[in-house]
Amino acid sequence: MIIIMYFTNMFFSCTLNKNSERKPLPRSGFCNFKGRVSMEKCKKILKVIVQIIFIWGFLLLGTWVSNFFSIPLPGSIIGLVLLFICLKLHIIKLQWIDAGASFLTGELLLFFVPAAVGIVQYEDIFGIIGIKLIIVIICSTMVVMASTGWIAEKFAKGDVAK
Question: Which residue of 8, 26, 37, 41 has the smallest Cβ count within 10 Å?
Answer without folding.
Answer: 26
